[in-house]
Amino acid sequence: MWGTFLLYLAFGGLAGLLSGLFGIGGGVVIVPFLAWHFAAHGFTPDAIMIMAVATSLATIVVTSVSAVYAHHRLGAVEWPMVGRLAPGILAGSVLGSIVADRLPVQMFKLIFGVFLLFVGGRMLLAAAVGGRRNLRPGAVLLSFAGIVIGCVSAILGIGGGTLSVPLLVKCRFSIRSAVAISSACGFPIAIAGSVSYVVLGWKHPSLPAESFGYIYLPAFAGIVASSFLFAPIGAKLAHRLPTARLKRIFALVVLAVGSKLLWQAAKPLI
Fold first, then answer.
1. What gap in Å lies between CA 177 and CA 179, rounded to an integer?
2. 3-state class percentages of the chain: helix first, strand second, coil last, to nearest 5
3. What's the pLDDT at 219?
4. Which of 46, 120, 155, 231 is the most exposed place for a label (fewest CB within 10 A)?
5. Is residue 31 a contact partner of residue 156, using CB atoms and an 8 Å limit?
6. When comparing pLDDT for 145 and 136, which is higher?
7. Looking at 30-34, 51-55, 57-61, 224-228, which range is the least confident one?
8. Closest CA to 93 of 147, 19, 168, 150
9. CA–CA distance from 245 to each of 22, 216, 228, 234, 241 (Å)?
10. Which residues, including other chains, have CB under 8 Å from residue 226's CB and lie 6 or more apart?
11. Of 96-100, 134-138, 184-188, which one has max mean pLDDT?
12. Per residue in 175-204, pLDDT tens?
């Protein structure tokens, strides 16, 4: 038991380090790790992916607080925009959790595999998030965007920055403000998604005893405890290490993991 918890601590530290070093969401690394770990420990196959996603979202509830506070102290969070996106994000997160609860495990792997290929390819090519177009979306468009961001994020177990930052940059915000607003939006995504996954998985007969709904508490506790500490270290290292080269190496790892998930999803069909 303690050996497993130490493993969660070690991986949480790695996830926090990578998050601070490369500016990626923790879900990109946490979900594949938990899926592998749960499978290796004989968890019910149909519950592995949704437990990994739910646990990842639960960790974001805690880790996003420090990020949002740091951005707020710097005056980078434009709270009116957060308020305009939040209702759609909350609704989308609940919807995404419900959709995920009904997804076949192979489809779950397929979706997450495609997402990892997208993230890895973008990192490898160092693609920019897009030019600023000074768009001024109305309430309806922002609500729709919030629903999409919340829904996709809840299904993938991420904070939503992959989707929200490009949108915000195109809506006249600087990259600094876009990242800050995205961090603030990650909190309602994580809260709504986590609560939904607790309700949907409540008293599920095939889940381990240490689960709280679909959230696996030992993994949640270990990952949060260490990732919270190591993310600032990663941010400091970003200013000292050759991050461009390291980012390319990490992108190849992400592409390999995404390809493996796609292969696992496709095997039953071949």
1. 5
2. 80, 0, 20
3. 95
4. 46
5. yes
6. 145
7. 224-228
8. 150
9. 11, 35, 25, 15, 9
10. 8, 9, 10, 11, 12, 13, 16
11. 96-100
12. 778 888 888 898 899 999 999 999 999 988
Check whether 26 has a pLDDT greater than 80. Answer: no
The CB-side HSE value for 87 (13 A sphere, CA atoms) comes to: 9
Burial label for 125, CB within 10 Å (0-12, 13-18, 19+), is: exposed
Measured at the CA of 22, the angle between CA 19 and CA 26, to 5 degrees, comes to: 25
Question: Closest by alpha carbon to 158, among 205, 92, 256?
Answer: 92
Q: Which of 128, 130, 135, 189 is nearest to 158 (CA)?
A: 189
**pLDDT value at residue 134:** 61
What distances in angstroms separate CA 25 from CA 51, 109, 163, one per listed residue? 18, 18, 11
CB neighbours of residue 162 within 10 Å = 22
Q: Lowest-confidence range among 127-131, 145-149, 245-249?
A: 127-131
CB 96 within 8 A of CB 151: yes
Looking from the CA of 174 toward its CB, the CA atoms found within 13 Å total: 6
| One-character DSSP codes across 196-252 | HHHHHTTT-TTS-TTEETTEEHHHHHHHHHHHHHHHHHHHHHTTTS-HHHHHHHHHH
pLDDT for residue 22: 67
Per-residue DSSP letter, 269: G
